[in-house]
């Protein structure tokens, strides 16, 4: 029993993504002594929230509360959780649990986000042993396994730290793992929520040159201010694919469209360059890739899923040390329906963060 109630914005069917979520109660997963309950003050809005509300990635087990960029205060901490105590400011990203067995190659080697045995997402997952379903952060409270609950460095504000927990880590992890750093020229395709973090973190990791690549020309000034050395507006800069051919060592692509000009993006890689896809289209399909595009350019194409708790902690520390400031727009949790519609319309510059005013106020007074 708890003296607080779990309430949030419930998506009840595919139409909820059009701004039809309804506020109501939900039953969190069954309490275990490995869990932490969080009183939520902030939650970022990720493109994934839209895919999940609309069942774009397959049937969502409605009702579903989305939101996996959660910051708040720990209000209940299970006996087995040693790194968090009641009252701590903590965060949760897109993952709520994995099998965490020593026999699991992924979990035992710091690749929890690729666990093939028992991966549970922060929302929209059904726990494997009858513990219930996972519910996300457009809500008053969240319950997540402590391994995936991280203390937040003091230097980061809650509103800025929230979107790092999914948007930030999803680009930080592949940048780091694919050699982003001094001597490298890095392209970030799709400058939205994830992509703007891509520019910020590629710079923070010390890349020589960072190129933002997105469709809209009116993002140019912003992307240069974010720290990019160059910006390509694919919708407006005629002949961009020829002008910038074979100029990049590494590309991280956040675009989630089956119709994106993938062959042109791949042509921007230098020989032996690497392209990492993180954008996740409805249905999962990408445009076809011609074998000669790969063979002739001698390039590699891969993918990446969020990041491990250890990598998230490393990213948060880097953000604190290098004073990485995401461009966020705070929206009231009360306006969550309008905010998801605005994100779908491409209006975010560059990440909306929902503020649960009631809880944020309470934490400010602590
Ligand atoms: P977002 O804020 O909407 O940004 C996506 C950007 O892509 C847009 O700003 C848009 O900018 C650009 N874009 C280019 N071509 C596009 C097209 N044909 N349709 C739509 N956008 C296009 O979304 P986000 O939160 O960054 O998420 C991006 C994707 O990453 C989503 O699919 C999300 O589910 C996925 N994701 C994956 C992981 C993972 O672990 N792999 C984790 C989190 C999110 P322009 O209009 O300027 O082109
Ligand atoms: Zn996300």
UniProtKB/TrEMBL annotation:
Keyword Metal-binding listed: yes
InterPro entries linked to this entry: ADH-like_C (IPR013149), ADH-like_N (IPR013154), ADH_Zn_CS (IPR002328), CAD-like (IPR047109), ER (IPR020843), GroES-like_sf (IPR011032), NAD(P)-bd_dom_sf (IPR036291)
Enzyme class label: oxidoreductase
Keywords of the record: Metal-binding, NADP, Oxidoreductase, Phosphoprotein, Zinc
Enoyl reductase (ER) domain ranges (all copies): 19-354
Pfam families in the record: ADH_N, ADH_zinc_N
Gene Ontology MF annotations: alcohol dehydrogenase (NADP+) activity; zinc ion binding
EC number: 1.1.1.2
Cofactor: Zn(2+)
GO biological process: alcohol metabolic process
Organism domain of life: Eukaryota
UniProt keyword Electron transport, yes or no: no
CDD domains: CAD1
Catalysed reactions, as listed in the record: a primary alcohol + NADP(+) = an aldehyde + NADPH + H(+)
PANTHER family: ALDEHYDE REDUCTASE
Assembly and interaction partners: Homodimer.
Family to which this protein belongs: Belongs to the zinc-containing alcohol dehydrogenase family.
Protein name listed in UniProt: alcohol dehydrogenase (NADP(+))
Native source species: Pseudovirgaria hyperparasitica
């Amino acid at each position: 029993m708890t003296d607080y109630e779990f309430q949030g914005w419930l998506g009840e069917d595919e139409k909820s993504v059009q701004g039809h979520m309804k506020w109501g109660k939900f039953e969190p997963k069954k309490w275990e002594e490995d869990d932490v309950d969080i009183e939520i003050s902030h939650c970022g809005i990720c493109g994934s929230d839209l895919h999940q509300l609309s069942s774009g990635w397959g049937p969502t087990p409605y009702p579903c509360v989305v939101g996996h960029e959660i910051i708040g205060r720990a209000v209940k901490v299970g006996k087995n959780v040693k790194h968090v105590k009641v009252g701590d400011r903590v965060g949760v990203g897109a993952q709520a649990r994995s099998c965490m067995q020593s026999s699991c190659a992924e979990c035992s080697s710091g690749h929890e986000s690729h666990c093939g045995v028992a991966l549970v997402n922060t929302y929209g997952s059904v726990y494997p042993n009858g513990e219930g379903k996972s519910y996300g952060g457009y809500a008053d409270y969240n319950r997540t396994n402590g391994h995936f609950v991280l203390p937040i460095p003091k230097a980061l504000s809650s509103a800025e730290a929230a979107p790092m927990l999914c948007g930030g880590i999803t680009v930080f992890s592949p940048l780091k793992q694919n050699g982003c750093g001094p001597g490298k020229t890095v392209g970030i395709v799709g400058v939205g929520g994830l992509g703007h973090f891509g520019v910020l973190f590629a710079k923070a990791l010390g890349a020589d040159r960072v190129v933002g690549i997105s469709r809209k020309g009116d993002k140019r000034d912003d992307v240069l201010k974010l720290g990019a050395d160059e910006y390509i507006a694919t919708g407006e800069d005629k002949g961009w694919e020829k002008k910038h051919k074979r100029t990049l060592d590494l590309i991280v692509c956040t675009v989630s469209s089956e119709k994106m000009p993938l062959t042109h993006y791949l042509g921007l890689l230098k020989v032996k360059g690497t392209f990492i896809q993180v954008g996740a289209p409805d249905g999962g399909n990408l445009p076809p890739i011609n074998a000669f595009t790969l063979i002739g350019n001698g390039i590699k194409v891969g993918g990446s899923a969020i990041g491990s708790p250890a990598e998230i902690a490393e990213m948060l520390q880097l953000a604190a040390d290098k004073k990485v400031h995401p461009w966020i727009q705070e929206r009231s949790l009360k306006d969550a329906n309008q905010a998801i519609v605005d994100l779908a319309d491409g209006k975010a510059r560059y990440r909306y963060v929902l503020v649960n005013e009631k809880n944020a106020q309470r934490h400010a007074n602590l």
